[in-house]
Amino acid sequence: MANVYKLRTNQNGSITWLITATNGIDKFTGKYQRIRETIRGTKKQAEIKAKEIQLKIDKGEYSKSSNDTVESIGEQWLERKKMEQSTRTYDYYVRTFNPYIKKYIGKVKIKDLNPLAVEKFLSTIQNIKSKRTNKKLSGTTLHHIFKTLKNMLTYAVVLEVIDKNPMENLK
User: Are 145 and 136 in contact (CB under 8 A)?
Assistant: First the structure.
């Protein structure tokens, strides 16, 4: 059962509520998977959010979203690719990930990444210039960045860090 607690009253008079719940026991650690979320608003709004969380837990749909960033998931993905792919392919992924994905959206929490944020990122990189040629990035390079990010986010779905790839319907 999800619980609601008054966390604090902010300077502007709004109240922050803490919602806690458990999502079963972790198979590997044997510890409870604790869920903690905060919400600003009325107690009624917090209780509604708590019920939504509990409903998702009961249906087995609650996202195990964490504070993982695009950068941390990308680095895990790269480590896996290092074992699976040839050196040349791995180097290609690193050359695509580090100067573009990591640099521009690396600090974004992966659970906060949505199709609009991805579109903004793609628009941003369309306007940057290549260090080597001092020209805008080619369509091929943009396509490689797109594919790399999409594959990386698919890996995050497999790890159950996010429920759905935000790039699933983007072209």
Answer: no
